[in-house]
Amino acid sequence: MAHRLLRVRAEGANLMGSPLWRWLGLLPFALFVLLFLVLPVLYLVQGAFQTPQGQFTFDNLRALASPTIASAYSLSIRLSLVSAGLGALGGLLVCYALVHGGLPSWLRHAFTTFSGVASNFAGVPLAFAFIATLGRLGLVTVLLRDLFGINLYASGFSLFSFWGLALTYLYFQLPLMLLIITPAMHGLKREWQEAAESLGASGAQYWRRVALPVLTPSVLSCFMLLFANAFGTLATVVALTGANFPVVPILLFQQIRGNVLYNPNLGFALALGMVAIMVVTNLLYFVLRARAERWQR
After folding, report:
1. Euclidean distance between CA atoms 69 and 219, whole angstroms
2. Rounded Cα–Cα distance for residues 228 and 274 (Å)
3. CA 165, CA 168: separation in Å to the nearest integer?
4. Whole-angstrom distance between the N-terminal and C-terminal Cα of the chain?
5. Distance (Å, whole) CA 144 – CA 25
6. What is the CA radius of gyration of the chain?
7. CA geometry: angle at 116 spanning 113 and 121, to 5°?
8. How confident is the prediction along the chain (297 residues), in pLDDT tens digits per residue?
9. Three-state secondary structure along the chain?
10. Residue 215: CB partners within 8 Å, gap ≥ 6?
């Protein structure tokens, strides 16, 4: 009886360790990717090359070169680049202070916990929070005006402008950068700095010639991720500026759901253009991420 039980267990272990069983574990994920990534992209491709009557056409793609749509892409790219650059730089400095600045561990844990929440805080709540803080009658705006005589809006600042949106994006871009660059910052080995110091290098020389070259692929890959994160943001822009700030997601929304600018096939072409930009961005991210991981092994 015991021998038979051991044989059954051995057969079960062999089954669990078989390549077929391991691949079956990926089936739910593969199904998810198929339903929510592959099939929607194929649907976009089909719709982008069709007229509303279902005939084949290149007119939707040609329309992407029109001044209005080209301006929307340019605005989205510039806004994403600025917010990603500010978020990457700010997150890198904060991460350095937390990891190598000698700060207490409870403060590092507090920043990490807050970053996990703030990196997912967007849309209507974020827009309302910034309006209540930096709007024309926001708390900070009124305090600066009444206590220090500084009128932000009279000096040219506006929360509902390009730089106001970039500042709003920074709220979730900087915490996201902090979360994803922290492992790379921890990957800087103490032995590297000690070796540099033993050879007579100063702290600035160590960072310029050792630490920054090692961190550069990680920082650039994080920048690409932040760019992709900002490029697809819609709810925050709509809640903050309405439809008066013509980034690509708003233009796409107007074509898909609008009453005046209703042209779903042009919307598919707009979405296909966004997918192409995101594919390039993610490919660069994976390449840079692979280069960065060589130093973290």
Report:
1. 31
2. 10
3. 5
4. 48
5. 57
6. 25
7. 125
8. 555 554 545 555 555 556 666 777 778 888 988 988 889 889 989 999 988 888 999 999 999 999 999 999 999 999 999 999 999 999 999 998 898 887 888 888 898 889 988 888 888 888 899 999 998 888 999 999 988 888 988 888 888 889 999 999 999 999 999 999 998 888 888 888 888 888 888 878 888 888 888 888 889 999 999 999 999 887 788 888 877 788 888 888 888 876 566 788 998 999 999 999 988 998 888 888 787 776 555
9. CHHHHHHHHHHHHHHHCCHHHHHHCCHHHHHHHHHHHHHHHHHHHHHHCECCCCCECCHHHHHHHCHHHHHHHHHHHHHHHHHHHHHHHHHHHHHHHHHHCCCCHHHHHHHHHHHHHHCCCCCHHHHHHHHHHHCCCCHHHHHHHHHHCCCCCCCCCCCCCHHHHHHHHHHHHHHHHHHHHHHHHHCCCHHHHHHHHHCCCCHHHHHHHHHHHHHHHHHHHHHHHHHHHHHCCCHHHHHHHCCCCCCHHHHHHHHHHCCCCCCHHHHHHHHHHHHHHHHHHHHHHHHHHHHHHCCCC
10. 92, 181, 184, 185, 188
- What residues form DSSP beta bridges with 56? 50
Query: Does the predicted model carry a pTM greater than 0.70?
Result: yes
Look up tokens 């070259």; give the residue.
213
Most distant pair of Cα atoms in the chain: their distance: 90
> Which residues are 50's β-sheet partners?
56
